[in-house]
């Protein structure tokens, strides 16, 4: 049996002093804490005899995911070079980008928060099926298309994919329950965490899903 493992990594903490919903907006970068999170996850991957054999690194095209992937590569590539292997480079793919959201660029909160003004509350009438933006089913479908393609392209290998909370969890929830819809406040996808999904290359069947949070101690 040939198996491929995709390690989905959530990006590290973002510098966002105005507490805006940045969604797909440009120029939202990792904070200093976020960079340390990404470095901790990179060290975890580099120190793992299994995970440091990954053959490719992908990410969403947004700043925070590319920066997280770059921090991982900075730690991983010296391990590869010590084995006489060529360094890996980053490839971006829009299919693992953050979910679309009608609140982008707004501050979400109480009082003057955008959620409670100008009728915006109508967009969150149903938290299971997000009327405020891209549906969970659509998110999971595009991530699933990406995953199937990469399993075919990397048979018997492991790859890293740096993405965002909603895409990672929506896809995982679909695989585990048969539907992508979920209660958004019960997601189990910490910043800089790793959700590893292993597929049987022949059938596409999911063999295992595991989760680890290497940056849990960083604040």
TrEMBL record:
<protein>
    <submittedName>
        <fullName>Histidine phosphatase family protein</fullName>
    </submittedName>
</protein>
<dbReference type="InterPro" id="IPR013078">
    <property type="entry name" value="His_Pase_superF_clade-1"/>
</dbReference>
<dbReference type="InterPro" id="IPR029033">
    <property type="entry name" value="His_PPase_superfam"/>
</dbReference>
<dbReference type="InterPro" id="IPR050275">
    <property type="entry name" value="PGM_Phosphatase"/>
</dbReference>
<dbReference type="Pfam" id="PF00300">
    <property type="entry name" value="His_Phos_1"/>
</dbReference>
<dbReference type="GO" id="GO:0016791">
    <property type="term" value="F:phosphatase activity"/>
</dbReference>
<dbReference type="GO" id="GO:0005737">
    <property type="term" value="C:cytoplasm"/>
</dbReference>
